Amino acid sequence: MYYNVYMFAEKEYAAVRRETEGRAVLCTVSKKHSVTEIRQAYDLGQRIFGENKAQELCRKAPELPEDIEWHFIGHLQRNKVKQILPYVSCIQSLDSLRLAETINREAERQNRVLSCLLEFHLAQDDTEKTGLPSSEAFAMMEACTPLANIRIDGIMAMGPNTEDETRIREVFAEGRRLFEALQAQYPSVHILSMGMSDDYPLALEAGANMVRIGSKLFQEE
Q1: CA 16/CA 13 separation, integer angstroms
Q2: Residues 6+ apart with CB under 8 A from 190
Q3: Which of 10, 100, 125, 152 has the fewest CB atoms lying closer than 10 Å?
Q4: 25-29 and 48-51 as β-strands: parallel, antiparallel, unpaired?
């Protein structure tokens, strides 16, 4: 199942914690990593982990401490919502009204209100196609407002797949503008999730208050 053996990188984790302290929440991306590797991070104090496959999340979560906050960060199919809801504290990849309605319906059955982030596709030159266009932001917020069992707490976006820092900064700046525009109208909006292992310093510069970092923190033995 896991083809390589990794260990959680304590020094890199400490460095990232210093960089993000007082600025951003760290979501450690644990996809494709074992329960043992996640436990190493947990033992160092990490509590928020991100997974992008429903089956993998549901396999690992029962084997790990209950105080872990699982964030779902990948494209979520509606038929997988019921499967992951007992475990997740936040779905960062809400990208359609039909998905929002499904999450709301399942959350109502579990008598809970689930935190969600709207995922936006801002890097138009990138091959990644998931996420809403920014032009639909306010219509989506308005449509989600009557759904009593989900709460839109912010937005999530990915930087473009490029080494061009100017282009990355442009995309993150667009994310910040969209976040502030939504925040001005919707009080619940307070999370701006941007930045991964290769570009999180630029996301922090742009004002991200949550980063999703994985490969920098799990190193092959």
Answers
A1: 5
A2: 153, 154, 183, 209
A3: 125
A4: parallel
Separation of alpha carbons 58 and 2, rounded Å: 16
Both structure tokens of 198: 């290769």
Q: Give the mean model confidence (pLDDT) for residues 42-46.
A: 97
Inter-residue contact 78 to 98 (CB < 8 Å) = yes
Query: If we measure between CA atoms, which residue out of 39, 45, 2 comes closest to residue 21?
Result: 45
- The pLDDT score that the predictor gives to residue 3 is 44
Which stretches within 61-136 are classed as H helix?
A: 81-84, 97-109
* Position 125 pLDDT exceeds 70: no
Number of H helices, E strands in the chain: 8, 10
**Which residues 6+ apart lie within 8 Å of 147 measured at CB?**
100, 101, 104
Q: State phi, psi for 194 to the nearest 5 degrees.
A: -145, 150
Report the C-alpha gap between 26 and 48 in whole angstroms. 7
What phi and psi values does residue 43 have, to the nearest 5 degrees? -65, -20
Using alpha carbons, select from 109, 88, 91 the residue that is nearest to residue 100.
91
Could you report the per-residue pLDDT of 83-103, keeping only the tens digit for each? 999 999 999 999 999 999 999
End-to-end CA distance of the chain: 17
Which three-class secondary structure state does DSSP give residue 90?
strand
Token representation of residue 51: 């997974």
Is the pTM here over 0.85, yes or no? yes
